[in-house]
Amino acid sequence: MQYVSLRNLRFMLHEVLDLSELRASERFRDFDQEAIDFSLDAAKQLADQYLWPAYREMDREKAYFADGEVHVLPAVGEGMRALGESGWLSAAWGFEHQGQQMPLTVHNSGSLIFQSANGNLAAYGFLTTGAANLIREFGSEELKQTYLEPMASGRWQGTMALTEPQAGSSLSDITSYYEEQPDGSYHIYGQKIYISGGDHTGVDNVVHLLLARQKDGPAGVRGVSLFVVPKYLPEPNGELRDNNVTTAGIYGKMGQRGYVAAHLMYGEQGPTRGFLVGEEFNGLKNMFLMMNEARIGTGMMAAGSASAAYYASLTYARERPQGRHPGNKDVNAPQVPIIEHADVRRMLLFQKSVVEGGVALLLQCSLYEDTHRVKRDDRSRLLLELLTPIAKSFPSEYGNEAVSLGMQVLGGAGYTDDFPLEQIFRDIRVNSIYEGTTTIHGLDLLGRKVMLAEGRAVSLLAEEIQQSLHEAGGDERTRVLADALATGLTEMQQVLNHLLTLARKEEPRVFLADATVFLEYFGLHVIGWMWLKQANAAVRALPTAEGAEENHFYRSKLVTARFYFNYVFTRTAGLRKTLLSTERITLNTEPELLV
To answer: In whole angstroms, what is the distance from residue 25 CA to residue 29 CA?
Structure first.
């Protein structure tokens, strides 16, 4: 069963990315090539056994709310515990927290495998990891002792409880509030909506990492603090006591029907106790640790869905005979597999370019995070911050298009539930919404990140890309790709100069009107860099490739890189025209004209 390429992950980890600094560090010295390959194989075996078999069943037998409980298939609890007991939920933690000190670059490679096999189930586990990371980073020793082990084992679910009916993504407008109690705990009041993993029968407890503001405290983000709010309060004797976290219901969703989104009420049925995480009023700042992790995780989820769709449509295209080559009018001639048709190969190459380009960026970001852990340097931190909006949005937006083309490869069969494409198409759509919509990431990139450290983040990225351009100049197969990217970067500098001039002369809404368009434009250049890096590695490896299979792998990389620059990167021309336009159509169109 193929839903992900381990060969591609090994290529990225051993041939494209330079992990030498990580391996030389005290923290990551145990993860040599053999250990990494063993970890990837173990993840695939786990996914084959616990995640992939439940993927379609979780859609057909979706989660439901009845008698005050959210019911999920037993496979959810089994999968959670399998991920926990095998160490994957805490693999990146230090030895002091019973982790493996696995590099995030390797950990996220494993995450991609799990997300490709079953993003519905994998999301429960890695959401729990993110919530536990907040406790591990900012929580008291008592909170760590109480919550980390059962969360790492997969017995307790973790959540991120942010969204409220009136606030949405505007976290400065939340109204859930807290009151301090004499024993040092807090009572929490309010409601949260769309809470992923917010309640279900697959685990013994649910631990909410929740934002609330001080009652009658300062307005805006200044009054917001972060709390651990468990569904059940753990007692010293090991028993669990109800904490009056009430589930009002769950949302019926277009996709990810096995992954619960709950509406939760706090303090309605009696006191709901919460425990402060970190310093009071630092809630939003601390929560950004989990939010940034979740944005990379959302990109992984999208890339995983797109990967599963690619291999499903590739398998179908190889097996499905239909039609003959144009020009062959002999009706007695045998039909050819549809992969023989050029337009089917176009759709498959688009999928492959999106999946492997997106995965490359996600692992590059993971490497920057690992490097920052080791060196605590500004360079890797700034590059990670700059690229995170693209790492979340490109696999989500272009992955959605890729899965749609995967369905198109199957034709009418793709629209039926005989094949997984229709489910994957429904599942991936939400990734453009999760962890901040694409619009929010466009505003973040253009409004904050390109001017981060007075533009130093962009300068550092240019230095990184220049290294790849220089390497590519030594071979004709990569030189043509490098020339296209270099021309695009020159044009992008013109776009940036234009937009920054607007920022100085106009009000912010003018400068940011097409931030989402800029996000796509910038992102296509970044993914072009990812493909140039892969093409450079393939050119290095081809002369010594052993056997037809390895030869085909590297040649496939070069072909897909050429496809990306000829079929996908060319979209930058239209986006550039829009960004340089003085029309201001969206700004100047009166709302009443949208009839």
So the answer is: 6
pLDDT tens digits along 26-49: 999 999 999 999 999 999 999 999
Helix (H, G, I), strand (E, B) or coil at 263: strand
Residue from 59, 49, 45, 47 nearest 122 by CA: 47
Mean pLDDT of 170-192: 92
CA distance 532 to 527: 9
Shortest CA distance to 486 belongs to which of 502, 471, 508, 507? 471
pTM score:
0.96
Q: What is the CA radius of gyration of the chain?
A: 24
**In the structure encoding, which two tokens stand for residue 158, read together?**
């973790």
Q: Which residues pair with 245 in a beta bridge?
A: 266
The one catalytic residue in 435, 463, 546, 592 is 435
Check if 471 is active-site.
no
Instruction: Give φ, ψ of 190 to 5 degrees.
Output: 140, -165
Please identify which residue in the block is written with the tokens 């309010």: 190
Give the C-alpha distances (Å, rounded to integers) separating 300 from 11, 148, 296, 446, 585: 17, 24, 6, 23, 35
| CA 506/CA 519 separation, integer angstroms | 20
| CA distances, 554 to each of 7, 38, 468 (Å) | 11, 23, 18
Cα dist from 276 to 140, 149, 159, whole Å: 9, 19, 16
Residue 289 has pLDDT above 90, yes or no: no
Q: Calculate mean pLDDT across residues 7-23.
A: 95
Strand stretches in 401-453, DSSP E:
none
CB neighbours (10 Å) of residue 168?
Answer: 14
Q: In this structure, what token pair is assigned to residue 168? A: 């949405």
Q: Please give the C-alpha separations between residue 102 and each of 26, 90, 453, in angstroms, as whole numbers.
A: 12, 9, 30
